[in-house]
Amino acid sequence: MKVQEWEPASAPESEVAAVIDLLNAAGEVDVPDDPRWQVDGYRDYLCCTMPGERRACWVTPDPHEDRLLGQANVLLMDDIGVIDLIVHPEARGKGVGSALLLAVARRAHDEGIPSLGVEAIGETPSIPFYERHGFRWAYGEIRNVLDLGSVDWLKLGGMAQGIGSGYRVEYYPGGPPEELFAAYAAAKESVRDNGDGDLDLRPSSYDPERLRASLATLHRRGLKPYIVVAVHEPTGDVAGLTEVVVPRPRPGRADQYDTIVVPEHRGNGIGRAIKARMLFELRAAEPKLAEVQTWHALEKDPMLKVNADLGFQPDREWREYEADVPDLLRKLGPSLA
Ligand SMILES: CC(C)(COP(=O)(O)OP(=O)(O)OC[C@H]1O[C@@H](n2cnc3c(N)ncnc32)[C@H](O)[C@@H]1OP(=O)(O)O)[C@@H](O)C(=O)NCCC(=O)NCCS
C-alpha cells in the first residue's frame, strides 16, 4: 500500500473528484443522514488556511481500481495539528488508516509540532481507531441538527422579537463591519478559556486582527459567514453574537459554530432571539440550505434549552481526541516500518 503526498492546489480536477468520491462513500456508511460533498469549491476548502497555518495532504491510491483507498490531511497550527482521515469502507481493517496516521505524525514531528488533535464523530469506527492508537479523549459535544423544513416560523418570529429592552439586533452577511470588530472580539474574549477543556481545534477570534484574518480565510475557503449580533444600546457593547458558515462544497448544511451571550447580559432572551433571527436571514439568503448543525457541551449548557426551543434535534456525539506526537511515532513507527 502506497501513501503518497498530495498537493490539492495543483492536482488535476479528476484527483479532487476522486477524493470527493471517497468522502461520499464513507459518508454513506458512517453518517448516512449528512449531505454529501461536491467537487465545486473543495480545492479552496483544503488549500486556504489562516496566515501561519498550512495543510498537508496524503492519499492512498487503490492499486487495482481507479479510486482512492484513503486520504488524510492535517492542519498544522502553532502547537497542534488537526487531523482529518478517511478510509474507504471497503478498505477498512487493513492498516490503511494507520499508515496514513503515521504519515501525519511524521510530518508533525518534522515541523516540531508536539501534539495531534482530531474531532471524531461518534458511532463511527474513528472512535475505536483513535483510542486504539492511544489518543486521549479531551472533550465531548453533542451535535444538534435543525431541519429548516420543520421550523414553525410564526413561533420563531415571536422568539426573534422576545429580547429585553435596551438591545438592538443586527444582521451582517459576510461578517461584522470594521467599526464593530473591537466590540465583537471583546465579546468573544469574555467567554474565552472557560476551563471546559475544549482543544480549540476550530478557529475563533479573540482580537480584531485575528478576526480580520479569520474572515478573509473563511471567504477564501468558500465558507460564507453570516453574523447576527445583539448590541447593548447604552454602551455599544456586543452583548451576544452568533456565527454561521455555509460551505460551498456542501451548501445543504450550514455550521453554527459560535453563539455567545456575554455573562452580564444573560437572562434577557438574547441567545434565543439572535439564533431565531439568524434562521430567518438564512432562509432568505441561502435557498439551497436544508439544515443547520450546531454543537453543545455534554455538560449542562444553557444553549441546550435555546436549541431545543428553536427545534434543533440532538444527533450524535462528537469527541475531540489528542495524542503526543513522540508517543504516536514510538507506537506506530516500528509496527508499520
Ligand atoms: C477510522 C478509520 C480511519 C480506520 O481506518 P482503517 O484503515 O480501517 O484502520 P486500521 O486498519 O489501520 O486499524 C487500526 C486499528 O484501529 C482499530 N479499529 C479500526 N476500526 C475499528 C472498528 N470498526 N472497530 C474496532 N476497532 C477498530 C483496530 O484496533 C485496528 O487495529 P488492529 O486491527 O490491529 O486491532 C476508518 O474507519 C474511517 O475512515 N472512518 C471514517 C469515519 C468517519 O469519520 N466518518 C464520518 C465522515 S465521512
Automatic annotation (TrEMBL):
Superkingdom of the organism of origin: Bacteria
Any GO molecular function: acyltransferase activity, transferring groups other than amino-acyl groups
Record's keyword terms, sorted: Acyltransferase, Transferase
Name of one Pfam family that matches: Acetyltransf_1
Entry annotated with the keyword Coiled coil: no
Domain N-acetyltransferase per the UniProt entry, residue ranges: 1-158, 189-334
UniProt cross-references to InterPro entries, sorted A to Z: Acyl_CoA_acyltransferase, Bact_Acetyltransf, GNAT_dom
Coiled coil: none
SUPFAM superfamilies: Acyl-CoA N-acyltransferases (Nat)
CDD domains in alphabetical order: NAT_SF (cd04301)
Transferase listed as a keyword: yes
Entry protein name: N-acetyltransferase domain-containing protein
Organism: Virgisporangium ochraceum
